[in-house]
Input
Amino acid sequence: MSSRRDAVTMAYEALAGEDDGRSCRDIPESACREQPGNFLRHAAALGLNKAADGLSDPKLVLSWLMTHLGAPAALVGLLVPIREAGSLLPQLFTAARIRGMPRRKWAWAGAALGQGAGAAIILAAALALEGLAAGLVILAGLAVLALSRSVASVAYKDVLGKTVDKGRRGTVTGLASSWSALVVIAFALTLIAFAEARAPVVLGALALAAAAWVLAGTVFAGLTEEAGAQEGGANALGDALANLRYLREDAQLARFVAARGLLTATALAPPWLVVLAAGEGGAALEGLGAMVLASALAALLSGYVWGRLADRSSRRVLIWTGLSGAAGMVLTLVFWALGLAGTLWAMPLALFAIMVAHQGVRLGRSTYLVDMVGTDLRAVYTAIANTVIGVLLLASGLFGAIAGLFGAAVTLGLFAAMALGGAIVAAGLKELGGRDDA
Output
């Protein structure tokens, strides 16, 4: 037992850059003693979760799968809204109950099992169904996955704060992101290398995703978590609705929410690239590996750059991402108009541009919201923004489905207009004062 503990401590010190395993700033001494093992479990469980996310990505993998199975394009357009809104809105109903649990690791572990069940439903639909039926069951499985994800999102930050010291939280989440990104890149390279066996590779990836979530839940359940405070679990939905008055009283908040809502186009657009290219001789079905690789590389290569820019001006990041997202969508339409959508390089290149913009949107919006208000109103403003954006995502899904009746090109054109509108609205936000401001 002692040798095993020593090995865990050595691994922790190597990964965390920790030279004093007993030095903690904001967790109790008892939790500090358990930190090496908890750190490794966080890195493993969160990495498994992120890897499973990549293997079952609705924007690309599930879009490809539904197109491959002959599901209607309108259903493909609902994938991202169901995933995003389904991960966001349920938090308003579940947050109070989760905060009332003394040990919230069980909520995250159970949510991981739920996500595994959702992936299994999607896999079963792909194996047994086709067309409309396959599309509907896949959406149902995705809804189960998204609901479980919302529970995990509420529970995770609290468990992390109780089990890993302040100076190591970014390290453990970054470690999980890094190794899980390598898994997604390996998946993309496998799709490229075994291009003639894309369908079996995708089905195998879904099976691996389901297994990864089950394993993640098992690993996370082994965390040593002390019982925490159970008060303070106010009803998040009630709070959000009660505080909607701030949208009237704070013009900058209203403008920020409007800009964020319009910039959701960068998340909603990718499935339509798959649909558009699939109409050009099925090239999207052949180029899935390249598209997954382009998406993974966009996340890896752009995050640091956007972060540095956001430190200077998150407002400008929102403007630039809106413009670059719109440009990526227009580029897609240009490729389509020139008859290049059927090539293996055009859609991945356009997707890379859109996903770089999407990474900037995610970083810019969170940075701007944190900088916009103090700690007394930050939670309130976050709840308001999440409520409104969740509703807008559901509405945009229906909008995308209706637009799908007129073709993927029209849909992408409308999303490009949304992204451009987001940049214009963001330009009217106050400059909050970055590092290079006086």
